## 1
Amino acid sequence: MGLINIISDRKNVTLDSDVILYIIMHGKIAEIHIVGGRVYETRVTLKNLEGLLKEEFVKIHRGCIVSVKAVHDVTDMVNLSDGEEHTTSETFATQ
């Protein structure tokens, strides 16, 4: 468990790493997806976020890290506990 501070929508936001499901990059914008469906956008590099989140998250491709706690199953896709799945593309789809 850890807290990270970001700026999203010109506001300081503190997030508990336990509520973060995954972070996916879209250009220079990091989309932080949390439990409950909320998404925070911030201009932080994935490398910086990885440093803040440490071993609690795993990189599944160069533009995405996923919470180890959120992974339900790994086959040819990464299936998250909230029903989302990740294929080889950089987008998540709801099952």
## 2
Amino acid sequence: MSFPAFSYSPFLDQAKELYEINSFKCEMCHIGTKLNFYGKDFKESLKINKDINEAFIKLNNLDSDKDGVLNIDEIKNNKNPGDSFSK
């Protein structure tokens, strides 16, 4: 018998708590197994800031997916800051 593989990320829980939005999904930072634009920016921010919440906060005023909408505005409107078609 085989079971599907599940993955867990504390980053997703931190984002949900920080922004008080429970509907976030892995797609906030990923496209399949690869990082999207926001996920890549988060990875770089985490290297610099070392703190998960601070790494997210540093991305608020960026437009990771270059769709003309700031990441924080997409987050507040339950859109995906890593997907240029979600704005």
